[in-house]
Write a structure and sequence with these properties.
Structural class: alpha/beta
Helix content: 40-55%
Number of strands: 15
Number of helices: 15
Strand order of the largest sheet: 7-8-6-5-4-3-2-1-9
Number of domains: 2
CATH superfamily of the largest domain: Aldolase class I
Distance between the termini: 31 Å
CATH class of the largest domain: Alpha Beta
């Protein structure tokens, strides 16, 4: 089954670390929603008849949409593609967008999963990250979510922030797990060029977290999550049994998905395409019956490398049987031979016909993945 991602690019302000496409002018919000619904119709054949199993509203800030706008997009997807009997429908929510009755209205649209952008429970760290909400607003939002009976709830945290200690992460995790969340996404801060933090780094006004502290934090993260019964199913994602994100997992397993809205990406197993990162141009083009996107055809090696890169980040790892069947014996043997040294070093293990990273290997996953990519 396929997935649909909807990019809502509006933000009230910019976070200091974010390099996703977003704008602060939301005056065209209604026009954008109508354009997204129009894009659904224009691209109704993209998924080649596959039923949609997951719908994900990301951003930007999708919680800036009204419940009725969210519902209208879901209805358009259902009418053009069809939804599975038990679809996973997620909306990313910023804690300070919550108002009385918000989650009641959201639940009535068919949304059954909420991803709350907590990021931190420390007020100073929230300000450093450029977040516009407070810790209290995160607490109130979570209380309202569970009071409404929405049980599939993910919290986002950021660690590795300059000046942050392992004890600070422990405090953030303790507070997060005081709520009955079913999923946790915890990302080590990456400082990207073009962001406010990127500028500070370039000017020498920022010292990144050292490797030892980052390793200590990653170890603590895994231990605490396991102690709460969470499965570490992807480098940055943890979940209770039955609450692994079906939508995000589809990316890592190369399931086809359609991206709607400006800057959204799509994948059909043969190519990738991404919409223009310009709200006005996107709306104008779609209203004229054309979706403005760039398309990249993927050759066999590119798809193989992407499979290695995504699957090795997960608990499912690289399926060597899949590699031999869908690629060829040469690539199968290449992985078997190259993985040998990582297995000897305790960074990787082979379970039957699957290669997975150990906890130690996960700490240097980027280096291992980079070496496994090939130009054969």
């Amino acid at each position: 089954m396929a997935g649909v991602y909807i990019h809502i690019p509006f933000c009230k302000s910019f976070c200091s670390y974010c390099d996703f496409y977003s704008i602060t002018d939301s005056s065209q919000k209604d026009a954008l929603v109508q354009a997204i619904i129009r894009e659904v119709s224009l691209r109704s054949r993209y998924l080649e008849g596959e039923e949609v199993d997951t719908v994900y509203f990301g951003g930007g800030t999708p919680s800036l949409l009204s419940a009725s706008q969210t519902e209208n997009i879901i209805k358009a997807i259902k009418e053009n593609f069809g939804l599975a009997d038990d679809p996973e429908i997620t909306v990313e929510v910023n804690p300070d967008d919550v108002y009385g009755g918000y989650f009641t209205s959201l639940k009535e649209t068919g949304v059954n999963r909420v991803s709350l952008g907590v990021q931190s429970w420390d007020e100073k760290r929230l300000k450093y990250l450029g977040r516009r909400h407070t810790a209290l607003q995160s607490e109130v939002a979570l209380e309202q979510i569970f009071r409404e009976g929405i049980k599939n709830v993910s919290a986002d945290l950021i660690y590795g922030v300059p000046g942050m200690t392992t004890a600070d992460l422990g405090a953030d995790l303790k507070k997060t797990f005081s709520f009955p969340v079913t999923h946790l996404s915890a990302y080590h801060l990456t400082i990207e060029d073009g962001t406010r933090l990127g500028k500070m780094k370039k000017e020498g006004r920022l010292t990144e977290t050292d490797e030892d502290t980052s390793t200590s934090m990653f170890t603590l993260l895994g231990n605490v999550c396991r102690a709460h019964g969470f499965i570490h199913y992807e480098i940055s994602n943890f979940a209770q049994e039955g609450h692994i994100s079906r939508h995000n997992s589809s990316y890592w397993k190369q399931v086809p998905y359609l991206g709607l809205g400006p800057s959204a990406h799509s994948f059909d197993r043969r190519s990738r395409q991404w919409n223009v990162s310009d709200v006005k141009k996107y709306i104008s083009s779609v209203n004229n019956g054309e979706v403005p996107f760039v398309r990249e055809e993927l050759d066999r090696l590119t798809i193989f490398n992407e499979y290695v890169m995504t699957s090795l980040r997960t608990m499912w790892g690289i399926d060597l049987t899949h590699v031999e069947k869908f690629y060829d014996k040469e690539l199968h043997d290449y992985l078997v031979n190259l993985s040998g040294k990582y297995i000897r070093y305790g960074l990787m293990k082979r379970e039957k016909n699957t290669l997975v990273l150990t906890d130690q290997g996960k700490m240097i996953s980027d280096n291992i993945i980079a070496e496994l990519l090939t130009e054969l």
